[in-house]
Amino acid sequence: MRVRxxxxxxxxxxWTSHRDVAxxxxxxxxxxxxxxxxxxxxxxxxxxxxxxxxxxxxxSVAEYLDLEIDPARADAVEVSTLPERLTPALPSGIDVSxxxxxxxxxxxxxxxxxxSAWLVEAANLPLDLAAHAIEQALAAESLMVxxxxxxxxxxxxxxxxxxSLSLLGPAEGGALLECELATQPRGVRPSELxxxxxxxxxAGLVRRTHQWxxxxxxxxxxxxxxxxxAPHAAVxxx
Length: 238
Fold this sequence. Notes:
By secondary structure, the chain is of the alpha+beta class. It has helices at 18-31, 82-86, 109-112, 127-139, 190-197; strands spanning 2-9, 48-50, 59-68, 94-102, 113-122, 144-149, 152-157, 162-171, 174-182, 203-215, 218-220. It has 2 domains: 2-106, Alpha-Beta Plaits, CATH 3.30.70; 111-220, Alpha-Beta Plaits, CATH 3.30.70.
């Protein structure tokens, strides 16, 4: 049985790396004695796969992981109660908002997710300059940025990956932007977007609000929430 879990990462825990978050989940599964399925071989590992890594220092209300339950013990797991059981077993700031059984044949999150939506504080960018920078970026044919990939400095055109970009209003000391950035064929980080808008723009608080899957012409979330359980996505009140 394959289960998809949706969770948020808010507050000080945002400074925890993706690898350390994976260890936190491993400890939570052990505390609950969750009967996970394991890989075969010399060093069996629990069958748990995470979605797109969240950059350290960023918050999110839309993180995902998939786990597989041991088929021989699947009847002992009540999936609907997993959010309320897992959240207390995790550090403060990581809250499980949903868990559902998915098709065993479903593609991995890494493969399926095609874009992410973000709220981004441009901490030192006045509103008038933010509006001008966004207008220029959307009108540009290319936005070249040099970034590191596998230890090499590579120059990439970010413009095709900026699916949407808008100014929401003021933020603490600057402007609050909303954007959707493609994750395939290569992902773009919000910090790289800000660098493309201006070399001296500093990032304040950044929060991922959605991950999107393109399916038969429609855009869907890996695990949608209804209006009563959806977490608040706003960054900070100005």
